[in-house]
Amino acid sequence: MLFGSHKNHLPTAEEALPGRPEREFAVPDRHTVLGNPLLGPYPEGLEVADFAMGCFWGAERIFWRADGVWTTLVGYQGGHTPNPTYEEVCSGMTGHTEGVRVVFDPARVSYDSLLKLFWEAHDPTQGFRQGNDTGTQYRSAIHTHGPAQQAAAESSRDAYQKVLTASGHKAITTEILPALDRPFYPAEGYHQQYLDKNPAGYCGIGGTGVSCPVGVGPAPEK
User: What positions does the domain Peptide methionine sulphoxide reductase MsrA occupy (predicted)?
Assistant: First the structure.
């Protein structure tokens, strides 16, 4: 993965790269594993969840394997630069995370279950890094769609913090922010379902080994 010289500083809107009004590359029509369209509009009744947890190659695979997930795609979210490229995001001058958009059927998999996958699959205490990957684009984040997701994400964070603290881990640094006004910009085609196309490819995802409380409601008092 590429690293820039600004990997430990989140740029302000004034500092960020200017970007462009339209995406300068094509995004594939369909998911290589699930077979469904990558870009919306999505079928009625499905919901969208956005997560960032380090390198998006491995993160996406975790979610496309989950029962009830209709499609996944990787992209850039939470920054200032419109329609960024991978190289721009890796420069540290856009402010975006490497994110995964998860489109799911809530009748088959709950948002709480997706949150549990999110927390357990990475280390949310590392700030601007994930494992050996260092940079603001690798920070942990949840971008929520509506008040119910916001409340569930915050509740799950508080529950997981209790068990992490009891296990000797540091404070969670995960951003939990509304997706509204934080557009999700799909990444280049070669990043989509990267580990399906390259089964032996790089995957930097790794959790703390601490289980998130089932149901991710309030953790039991210690």
Answer: 50-203
